[in-house]
Structure formats: structure tokens, C-alpha cells
Amino acid sequence: MADGTETPIAELRAATKRYGAVVAARSLDLSIRRGEFLSFLGPSGCGKTTALRMLAGFEVPTEGEILLDGQRVNDLPPHRRPVNMVFQHYALFPHLSVADNIAYGLRQRRPRPPAAEVDSAVAKALETVRLPGFGPRRIWEMSGGQQQRVALARAIINEPKLLLLDEPMAALDKKLRHDMQIELQTLQRTLGITFILVTHDQEEALSMSDRICIMRDGQIVQVGSPRDLYDRPKNRYVADFVGKSNFFEGTVRAVEGGSARLDCAGGIRVVGRPSEGVATGQAAIASLRPEQISLTRGEDGIPVTVVNRIFLGEHTEYLVRNPDLGQFLVLSSRQAEAGEGNFEPGETGRARWRDGAALILKND
Amino acid sequence: MAPATAWLLAMLVLPLVVVVVFSFGERAAAGGYSAAFTFENFANLGTRWAAFQNTLMLAPAGTILCLLIAYPLAYYLAIKADARWRTLLLILVIVPFWTSILIRSYAWIYLLGGQGIPKLLSTFGLGNPRLINTPFAVLTGIVYGYLPLMVFPIYVSLERLDKRLLEASADLGSPPWRSFLQVTLPLSMPGVATGCMLVFILLMGEFLIPAMLGGGKVFFVGNALVDLFLQSRNWPFGAAVAVALVVVMLVTVTLYMRLTRRWAGARDEVALM
């Protein structure tokens, strides 16, 4: 991947977008690396689509700058940006055939490329999205998944510097979505085009991206690789958005050498790595992933009652209840089950975790 | 026989048959119809050539003028106008319909007559052109009267146009004016085809506007029919003129539909009727 000296393929510099009193994006700073797969992740209304539309040129930032390949492009209209988008509902032209849809971008170039050149590029693009021979079809003859491939072909044929994907999988069913995710990822690797995906689906973002930019209320909360975000979330919001997590509220009693101690209800203590800004005496939360907690019949740990059990194949997920901490999730591997055996709903046991396994986060 | 078929026969086919039968008859001495079988009425069609000529010139011209004026208006209403004002503006397009075309044509008689626009022009020293009773006056009346019928179908097709397609077009490198030609215009063709068909067919049968603004100098086939049936009471000849008009209309409409079909890539949403 890109090293530090290379110019980023795209950059947002303090980019802000206001609609009257509403701030859709607040001072976004982000530099996008050449050839990476970056996702904007967040709930609807978090500003991720605004960020994408600013890159495409459909929105002009009220303040700040948008750079493409080191050039300021704030005033460059969409049709002059070397960027292409796969729209949420594909926005394919209903009056054109599949081939004409895909050729659309090439035919806008001046001077117009020769017809033979366009035809062979279209054939190649259809090949790439695995729809060979579908050129003469009409758009409404294509299924949802096929339409999405056409939209993809229509964008990549132009060899854009950035390929923007606005929730491209939202309209597909689960199975198809999964296949498409894998395909998209493979495509990105082979083409070497920088992909920017907007999604509210954390699994999608985690499985496909090199980096994820988590957003909330028009601001960037944290940017990092999926692993970074999973292991070192900056706050509760990120921990909650990336993977499943249990949160226990408490007060920080001590912070010392990369370790913090949190006292929770009922005198339960959680020791873990503190995130930035966690200080003694503050209210904070401990974040524990379900797989970091184990269920035993021993004497160690806090007493819990099993409320529910979900068999997930390789793992079993238990919903357990502690009188002080309330309900939380425990994920047991089959291996662990072999030692401790199954817990039935209603059964009591003990939940425990390694000191240091938890993250002590600011509660925001 | 199904009730619908009976209805269709009684209300549509039977009158047409009567007209065709009459067209081969003779004028009774006191006017009206007397049974006969002669082609004389059709042989005499040439004497009404001027009416056919006017109709076949002014109906297409009026349709095209309506289209040229209605398209920008519909475009503005559907795409550019502020959503808050849209309904009000649409109502303003319909409001003239609430008054009889007769009254509105009288208004035009005054406007185009000696005391109206020509007088205004002459006070500014711009000459004193004769406007009333000219093809120009008839065309003005036609465009004024039929404009809403053209605006609405085009408005509907533009309003239904998915605006994201225009973003997609821009995203793929097309400047706005080319997006209009490549996306907006072709996708609004069904509305254009419907509007043209509607206005053209009604114009072919028009008689009120030419009667009032053409003053007997610019007359349509419709005026010839009124004259033949009500004034000279020559029903058989009137019937022959009516049959000829139907035939002319069938031919032009069929040609037109063929043309739009091909243009719209054989899509069936184009056809109106």
C-alpha cells in the first residue's frame, strides 16, 4: 500500500457542508490512499453520503477543500471529475441497452473514441463483471444483481481515479450481497482502482475494507483498519458499531502504565487497557467482546444465570444475567464447551475474563 | 352479445355506418338525405379543397407550435420550479379552461381586431398590421386554446423522470446540455408523443376557433361540415367530406404512430389510445 511520501489520491481538508442551519458534514479531514478500499461507515444521517457526494462533485463544500490527486477540485463540476459512482439504486438509463449504458461514459469523451474501440471496451467490461453477451439486453430484463453489475461495469470502464459506491448492496438479498462483496473485493484488487464505499452495514465494511472511516453526526469519529477499530476502538460508539460488545458502566479508580481499573455496580472490578482521555475519578465504561468472556462451573468470576442460548455452529452464544451488571453476551467456542459442557437456560454458572482483556473507554 | 360490444356498436360503429351510407346518397329537394348510390359526392370533394388544405397546414403547424411552447413550460414546472409553487403554477395553466372557449375567442377577436394589438402597435409607430381573420389569428387561437393539453402529458413524463439519472449522466462526464439531449429528452418522448397526438386529433376536427378568428377567410374542414349540414343542408356531400376527413386522419395518425414507435425504440408506452 501507499507509503507516506506519495500524494494521496483524494483528500478532504476541513470539508464542511451546511444546508442552512443543518450541518451535514463538519470539518472532515481525511486522506485517501492510492489503491485502497475505504469505507465510510455510520448510521443514516451521519454524513457519509455527503462526504461521498462532495468527492463526486454533487455537493460543493461550504467550507474547506476537496483535493483529487493533489489538485483542488471544489469548483470542478461532476462531469469534469475523473471519478465515477455506483448509485444506490444503480440509476441505469432505462431507454438504453445494457451495452449503451456501459458505453455512456466513453461516448462523452471529446474527441469521441472510435466505435470499434468503445465496443471492445464494453465487451471487456461485461467480461469483467461476468455478464458476457448481455450487451443487447434491455435494463428491465435484468435482475437486481445483474443490474448492479451493469452499474459497476458502467463505472469501471472509465478507469476512474476513484470509484464511489453508495450503498451498492442495499437492494440485494443476503446471499447475493455476500457473493457481491467477495466479487467487489476481488475486482478492486485486480483493477487497482481506489474504491470508496458508503455503508451502514458494519459486517460489509469489516469484511471488504482496508480502512474504515466511522462517522457520527457529520463528523469522523475514528479512521483505521478493521482490526484497529475492533481491537482499539476510541470510544463506546466505535466499539458498539464494530462487532458485538458488552458495556459495563463504572467509575475509573486507577490508571497506571497502560492499565486502568474500573469499579462497576456491586463492587465488580474490571481491569483493562484505557483509551485516550480516560482519567481517575471519571465515569467510564468497560467494553468486553463476548468471545473474551468465558462461562465456567468453577468458583472464579461473577455469578450469572443463563437466560438464553443460541447455537451458531462453531460457537454458542449465551445471553446471561448478573444481578449487578444486568444482561450480557458470552460467546463460547465448541472447544471450550468440550471442557465445561453445555449450559442450559436457567442454569447458573460463573462468567470470567482475563485482567487486561477489557477496554476502558470514555462513555461517548 | 356482450353488453360492451353492443354499446360499442350502437354508439360508435352504427353512426359511422350511417355517415358512410349517407355519403353515397343524394340531397333531397328540401335538403337532407334521399337514398341513392352515387360517387358524385366524392367526385365533388375538390370543391372543398381549400378547407382540407387549411386543416392539413394549420393543424400540424398548431401542434408543433404548441409543442415548442409547451415543452419549456412543462420543463420549468416539472424540474426547475420550486416545489412549493408548483401546484399553484399548474392550476394557473388550467384556469383558462374554466371559461368557455367561446368567451376566450371573443377576447382574442378584440385583441387581434382593429382596436387591439394593431392599434397599440400603430401608436408606437410600428405599422398597423391586419391580424384578425388571418392564418396567424387562427394559429394564435389554436395555440392558446390547446396549450394545456400539450403541457400536461409532457409535465407528467418529466415529473416522473428519475432525477438521479441526470446525476449519473453528469458523473459519467456529460455536461448538463448534453444530459438533456441524451437523457431528459428521450425519456420525455412518451409525454411528447401523447401531447402531440391529443392536440393534433382535436385540431383536425376544430371549427370554433377558425370560425371566430378566421372570419370565413381561414376555415377548416370542420367549418365546411357545419356549412354543409346546417346551411346548405346537403347531408350526403357533408357525409362525404366527413368520411374523407376520417380517412385523412387515419392515414396521418398511422404514419405518426409508426414514426414515433421507431423513434422510441419499439417501446409500447408511447402509443396513446
Q: How are the SSEs placed, and which strands pair?
A:
The complex is a heterodimer of chains A (364) and B (273).
Chain A: E1 10-19, E2 22-32, E3 37-41, H1 48-56, E4 63-68, E5 71-72, E6 83-86, H2 98-107, H3 115-128, H4 144-156, E7 162-166, H5 174-191, E8 194-199, H6 202-208, E9 211-216, E10 219-224, H7 226-231, H8 236-241, E11 246-256, E12 259-264, E13 269-274, E14 283-288, E15 294-296, E16 302-311, E17 315-322, E18 326-333, H9 334-340, E19 348-352, E20 358-361
Parallel strand pairs in A: 3-8, 3-9, 6-7, 7-8, 13-20
Antiparallel strand pairs in A: 1-2, 1-4, 4-5, 9-10, 11-12, 11-14, 12-13, 14-20, 15-19, 16-17, 16-19, 17-18
Helix pairs in contact in A: 2-3, 2-4, 3-4
Chain B: H1 3-23, E1 26-27, E2 33-34, H2 40-43, H3 49-80, H4 83-94, H5 101-112, H6 117-123, H7 135-159, H8 164-171, H9 176-204, H10 208-213, H11 221-231, H12 235-263
Antiparallel strand pairs in B: 1-2
Helix pairs in contact in B: 1-12, 3-7, 3-9, 3-11, 7-9, 8-9, 9-12, 11-12
Largest sheet of chain A: 6 strands, mixed
The sequence of SSEs of chain A as H and E is EEEHEEEHHHEHEHEEHHEEEEEEEEHEE
Main beta sheet of chain B: strand number and arrangement?
2 strands, antiparallel
Number of domains of chain A: 2
**Extended strand count of chain B:** 2
Q: Which structural class best describes the helix and strand composition of chain B?
A: mainly alpha
Structural class assignment of chain A: alpha+beta
CATH class assignment of chain B? Mainly Alpha
Explain briefly what this protein structure is.
The complex is a heterodimer of chains A (364) and B (273). With 364 residues, chain A is an alpha+beta fold.
Structural account:
The complex is a heterodimer of chains A (364) and B (273). Chain A is built from 9 helices and 20 strands. Chain A has 364 residues and is of the alpha+beta class. Chain A has 2 domains: 10-236, Rossmann fold, CATH 3.40.50; 244-361, RNA polymerase II/Efflux pump adaptor protein, barrel-sandwich hybrid domain (OB fold (Dihydrolipoamide Acetyltransferase, E2P), Beta Barrel). The longest helix of chain A is centred in the middle third of the chain and has 18 residues, at 174-191. The model of chain A has no long low-confidence stretch (mean pLDDT 91). Chain B has 273 residues and is an all-alpha fold. Chain B has one domain: MetI-like (MetI-like fold, Orthogonal Bundle), CATH 1.10.3720.10. Helix content of chain B is 72%, strand content 1%. Chain B is built from 12 helices and 2 strands; from the N terminus they run H-E-E-H-H-H-H-H-H-H-H-H-H-H. In chain B, a hairpin with a 5-residue loop joins strand 1 and strand 2. Mean pLDDT of chain B is 90; it is low at 266-273. Classes of the chains: A alpha+beta (364), B mainly alpha (273). The interface between A and B is medium-sized, with 23 and 20 residues.
